Amino acid sequence: AVPATAATATAAPVATPPGLSCETGKHAIDDYTGFALCRNNGSQTQVFWVHLVCGWSPDVDGERVTLRPGQSGQSTAHCGSLGTGIGEIQVRP
After folding, report:
1. Which residue has the higher pLDDT, 5 or 39?
2. pLDDT tens digits for range 13-70
3. In whole angstroms, how large is the CA radius of gyration of the chain?
4. What is the DSSP string of the chain?
5. Which among 3, 19, 23, 31 is placed 20 to 30 Å from 71, CA to CA?
6. Phi, psi for residue 91 in degrees, rounded to 5
């Protein structure tokens, strides 16, 4: 996993699942690695993952992260290097 401190947050308009507050972005030194850093503000356990739209390479999903109420966590993924890099970063429920 890429620590949030090693990443640059780029707030992109994404549809965040209800109960989660998330920041998304690309890794500071790798335009092919993206992340979603989310906090569960709801009252029920939530699962989320980052989804990267990768241009010419296949889209990829990051690891599933389970958050209890009040917890924070990060999901990361990496686009294939033969593509054009990350075109969009989404948070999936």
Report:
1. 39
2. 456 778 999 999 999 988 899 999 999 999 999 999 999 999 889 999 999 999 999 9
3. 13
4. ---GGGEEE------PPTTEEEEEEEETTEEEEEEEEEEE-SSS-EEEEEEEE-TTSPPEE---EEE-TT-EEEEEEE--TTS---SEEEEE-
5. 31
6. -110, 125
Q: How far apart are CA 21 and CA 55, in angstroms?
A: 26
Flag whether the pTM goes above 0.90. no
pLDDT per residue over 73-88, tens digit each? Answer: 999 999 998 878 999 9
CB 91 within 8 A of CB 50: yes
Q: How far apart are CA 54 and CA 82, in angstroms?
A: 10
